[in-house]
Amino acid sequence: MNYRVIPVGLLAGLFVLSALLVSAQTASAGDVKLEVYLIWGTDDAKSPNPKHRPVDADLQAELKKLPLKWKNYFEVNRKSVKLADSESSRVTLSAKCDVEIKYAGKSTVEVSLFGKGEPVVKRTQALPKGETLFLGGNAPNATSWLVVIKRVE
Amino acid sequence: MNYEEQLKLQSFLDGELPEKDARDVAARVARDNQAAALLAELRHTREAITGFEDTIRLPESREFYWSKIQREIDRLQPVSAREAPAFSLWAYLRRVAVPATALALVAIAGLVANRGLHGFGGAGVTEVSVSDAEALTYRDYAAGTTLVWLSFPADNEVAQNTTSGTLP
């Protein structure tokens, strides 16, 4: 039998194809674990609220890469959320800030932000593991608020 | 005898010298034993060679003999040095189309995997604004971050700080 008839390149391509398909299936299956933050951005070195603490180093690094002008960011609240496919959860981050997150499957989430119970924005987007979605806006006294949704698993 | 004199002896033996030079060489051979010995040796050698050549007889014509040599030379040359083989579709497919197909499969696999990670059905990034909230989206693909900046009037709305009266 002439084994050289089977091209090595074709075999390698099929192997890579199989590996990628398996990888894609693995990535799209199972639950997602999210960290949800409410962040306050300011140029002040300290927050007037002693309960606030500076954001952790990883989040600080991500915030510094964004086109935002504030020097310091403080963590107001943080919640962990674990969602199965098609499951949703409403997270209260402050007395007037809620966020509802639904895992739509295939690494896609639907995020609905509420202010004082009223819908502010709804966004559907892919959120692969390790990626982060920031929803933010201006706040009084040249400060800012940010709702951060970070997928950790 | 020097080299020139030896050559002259060889020419004398071959009958190539002018008459005067031939006489001089003959006189030298008559009085010089070394010259006479060399001439005798050259004569014997020539006769031996002539006799040897006479014994060789080709079994075929001269042209056919050399044509056999030429065919053997051609046979021993590398394949690449000979004329190119005729075009073969199967050979072309094996050399070009099959590797190209493998590359295409890898590309398709990458595309499928990418869509799998980011969701099928064009889920990509979509946005629905509510309550007149205009949004500016910034996407950093390298960092894996997406920033949606809202014009939502957050004054004392989203995360009011109850102690200071300001956000958050």
Provide an overview of this structure.
The complex is a heterodimer of chains A (153) and B (168). With 153 residues, chain A is an alpha+beta fold. Helices cover 20% and strands 49% of the residues of chain A. Chain A has two helices and nine strands. Chain A has helices at 8-28, 57-65, and strands at 32-42, 53-54, 72-83, 88-94, 97-105, 108-115, 118-126, 132-139, 143-151. In chain A, the strands form two sheets. In chain A, strands 2-3-1-9-8 form a five-stranded antiparallel sheet, with no helix packed on it. In chain A, strands 4-5-6-7 form a four-stranded antiparallel sheet, with no helix packed on it. Chain A is elongated and about 70 Å long. The model of chain A has no long low-confidence stretch (mean pLDDT 86). Chain B has helices at 3-14, 19-31, 33-55, 62-76, 89-118, and strands at 125-129, 135-140, 145-150. With 168 residues, chain B is mostly helical. Chain B is built from five helices and three strands. Mean pLDDT of chain B is 73; it is low at 115-124, 126-132 and 156-168. In chain B, helix 1 (3-14) crosses helix 3 (33-55). Chain B is elongated, with a radius of gyration of 50 Å. Chain B has a two-stranded antiparallel sheet. In chain B, strand 2 (135-140) and strand 3 form a beta hairpin. The interface between A and B is large, with 68 and 56 residues.
